[in-house]
# Entry
Amino acid sequence: MYYIVAKNVSKYFSNTKAVDDISFSLKEGERLILLGPNGAGKSTLLRLLSGMLKPDTGYIEILGNRTVPYNSEISRHVSFLGENYALYDNLSVIDNLIFFGTLYEIEKEEIIERAMEILSRLDASEFINRKVGELSRGTKQKIAICRALLNKPKVLLLDEPTAFLDPHATDELHNILEEADATIVYATQRFDELHKMKGEIMLLDHGRKRAYGSLEQILSSIKDINVEIYLLNEKRLLLRRWNFIQKRNKINAKLKSASEIPELIEDIVKEGGKILSVNYLRESISNEWW
Amino acid sequence: MKDMKEAFSSLSISGPMIGIPIFFAVLLPLFTFYIARYAGNTILPQIAGISVPQSFGNLYFIEFFSINILGPIFMTMPIITASVLAADSFAGEKERKTAEALLATPTTNVELLIGKIFASLIPAVLLTIAVFIIYASITDYLSLSSFGITIFPNIAWYMMLLNSPFLALTTIGLVVLISTKVRGIKEAQQISTLLILPLLVIPFASISNLAKLNLQFFIILFIVLLISSSAVLYLSEKFFDRERFLLS
# Structure
């Protein structure tokens, strides 16, 4: 059974096509990463999947039910975390969680127990009795993540959940998601998350699907791999074999495939360059599609 | 409970919720009594068009003034409080960007509307009753100590109290209707408080003998409010659209 089916979904805002003819389907436990710059249509697509917005064309089915007209039975098994933390600033963390948990008909004791478990993992349990308005943006995001996980959703829709999170909390969130049974649609514009999340990737731009598949498939379809290498030193390199530009300690090289990267690094090291970091996902993908 | 807790922890809500009752319950009876004591006999024939014996003039003035002038003003209270609370409850969800999380829950439109309507209606009505009790107690204390007679309760004020939940409901229904069109709390409040205007005409109509605030008047008002609040609430449920609420 497909947990999510989106068929030729489009959404217009006035004359702007926010989502343009998107189709995909996910089975139980499958994950989809929506990757795209600002305005790519990621948030709108997630809102459409949650049933908050109605598609102008096409349809969406969640757990076998159409999202239009609004069906509260779907929402019972779906969680949505938007780009805003969407908590009540004047209420305490626990009051917020009890309020939202109650809307999912979860018992108060279970809400508290589950909240403590999730917040402990995200290093935020100490804030449980504090007013949300007093907390940092990162902590608010942790509380919002906790809210989204309270109902043990079958379908989890996350819009840039790691925005504002510190590296430890980011890793812990990925661990939590890895352990979850949910079917997840995860929107991000952070390329470093592509290797942390397992699943298919959909590249979006101006509401349109530009590429779809595993990370490997996407990389293999790129004509030129653009590598960005930072050196610890500013050693001037010759690297005659390679098509590259060096500015101080930064090297930008254009390769035919990702498999050439180890050879390039080997040559840099041979010439005395000390490698600080190697990135090629962001440069290659954005150069190819955006 | 969430809405009430949140609303009363915000100064922009609790401020008017404390200030307005103080004005209605304490300042108005003192003001009335002051005028009655020093100018009741002079003003009464001019505003009520009647002449009573000197010894009853001040007392009659208080009664006339409290029903015909202060009564309609008092009836604006459920409108003001309901509009402040309802605007915070509905338009506030959009302004604070919490609407998205709320709409993502399994709460149906009817559940959402009922929850929010009661969260605004109950405090507005309770506050109105509390203010009436304080107002009546202060007025009765002053008139008893000066004239040896109490004014409240009387049938006109009972009828005004009976009408107050429907005034609040009409206001809340209007806020729900416009909450899909406005961006924030202030706009919702400003539009909904337009309901006050017809009430403010009543004292002038009363003074100029165009309307008499008697039992018949209040029964007609009750029927009008019953119909209007039912109609506005029906329309607000019928036209409530989650997408429009989120995007406007």
In short: The interface with chain A takes residues 2, 5-6, 9-10, 96-109, 242-243, 246-247 of chain B (CB under 8 Å). The two ends of chain B are 26 Å apart (CA to CA). Chain B has a mean pLDDT of 83.
